[in-house]
């Protein structure tokens, strides 16, 4: 198959004889193409986000599955959701071919195992309420294809993220997201532009979905989980910005709200108790702006 991600990039021919300055300029020029490639896929990303929000609202999960760099990026995005949005640890899940050891060590042959993709989804009790996002730069990774084929067989919504338009995953996934970034500076090294494109898409999938669940107020991270001093300070500043109270007052309400900035904001703005704020948020689907309207 003629995969653009495997082709030689004419712009980087002879890069081994370039100065460091020239090497960096070539890489930077190529990286500039990534955002435009992702932009072309916004309609498909929107379709995926709508499915993810629907899934979350009926108790489903977002599951990323991939191999190598793609798998690592999925786990990275999943791992950032609990501290950023206070999601349950099993609401957004990252799975990588070869298991967690593959995060730091290449597990040879793991990505070629079709049955392993299916097995890994069965091991987390995949249901039709979930959404599975298959991540594969070249679009033909057997492990990922096996996973999506199994997900399709039980009625789960499937999304494929790849940097090749005519790859196998575009035929398997219900929704295909294909930012075509062109050949890599080092031919076939898809941890470069293809990896960057996949990271940008994942940022959009998770962030836009969380906004759609009411986990952001204005542009503030109001569902942050303040589990360390940095995040406690961030939560305090979020309350201050949203309500215009002084730091000491914000710190007091953060404590009264049991470390839930969203609840603290409603308590201050509506001049109500913790219990009343929680109830108001439940009644309005978790959206702060709807409570305050």
TrEMBL record:
Residues 52-215 form the SIS domain. Homodimer. This is N-acetylmuramic acid 6-phosphate etherase. PANTHER family: GLUCOKINASE REGULATORY PROTEIN (PTHR10088). The gene is murQ. Its EC number is 4.2.1.126. It catalyses: N-acetyl-D-muramate 6-phosphate + H2O = N-acetyl-D-glucosamine 6-phosphate + (R)-lactate. Belongs to the GCKR-like family. MurNAc-6-P etherase subfamily. Pathway: Cell wall biogenesis; Amino-sugar metabolism; N-acetylmuramate degradation; Amino-sugar metabolism; 1,6-anhydro-N-acetylmuramate degradation. It comes from Tepidimicrobium xylanilyticum. It is an enzyme of class 4 (lyase). A lyase-type mechanism (elimination/hydration) is suggested for the cleavage of the lactyl ether bond of MurNAc 6-phosphate, with the formation of an alpha,beta-unsaturated aldehyde intermediate with (E)-stereochemistry, followed by the syn addition of water to give product. InterPro entries: Etherase_MurQ (IPR005488), Glucokinase_regulatory_CS (IPR005486), MURQ/GCKR (IPR040190), SIS_dom (IPR001347), SIS_dom_sf (IPR046348). One of its GO terms (biological process) is amino sugar catabolic process. GO terms for molecular function: carbohydrate derivative binding; carbon-oxygen lyase activity; ether hydrolase activity. The keyword Lyase applies. It comes from the Bacteria. The keyword Lyase applies.
């Amino acid at each position: 198959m003629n995969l653009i991600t495997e082709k030689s990039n004419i712009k980087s021919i002879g890069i081994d004889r370039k100065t460091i300055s020239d090497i960096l300029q070539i890489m930077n020029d190529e990286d500039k193409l990534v955002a435009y490639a992702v932009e072309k896929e916004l309609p498909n990303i929107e379709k995926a986000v709508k499915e993810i929000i629907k899934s979350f609202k009926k108790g489903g999960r977002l599951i990323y599955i991939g191999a190598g760099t793609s798998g690592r990026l999925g786990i990275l995005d999943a791992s950032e959701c609990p501290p950023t949005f206070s999601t349950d640890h099993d609401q957004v899940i990252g799975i990588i071919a070869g298991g967690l050891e593959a995060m730091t060590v290449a597990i040879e042959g793991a990505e070629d195992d079709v049955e392993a993709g299916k097995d890994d989804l069965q091991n987390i009790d995949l249901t039709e309420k979930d959404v599975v996002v298959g991540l594969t730069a070249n679009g033909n990774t057997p492990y990922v294809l096996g996973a999506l084929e199994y997900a399709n067989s039980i009625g789960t919504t499937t999304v494929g993220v790849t940097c090749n338009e005519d790859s196998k995953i575009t035929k398997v996934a219900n929704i295909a997201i294909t930012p075509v970034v062109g050949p890599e500076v080092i031919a076939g090294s898809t941890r470069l532009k293809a990896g960057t494109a996949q990271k940008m898409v994942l940022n959009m999938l998770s962030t836009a979905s969380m906004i759609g669940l009411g986990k952001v107020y204005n542009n503030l991270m109001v569902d942050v989980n303040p589990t360390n001093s940095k995040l406690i300070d961030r939560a305090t500043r979020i309350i201050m910005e949203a309500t215009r109270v002084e730091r000491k007052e914000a710190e007091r309400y953060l404590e009264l709200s049991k470390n839930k900035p969203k609840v603290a904001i409603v308590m201050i703005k509506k001049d109500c108790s913790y219990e009343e704020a929680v109830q108001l948020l439940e009644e309005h689907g978790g959206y702060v702006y709807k409570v305050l309207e």
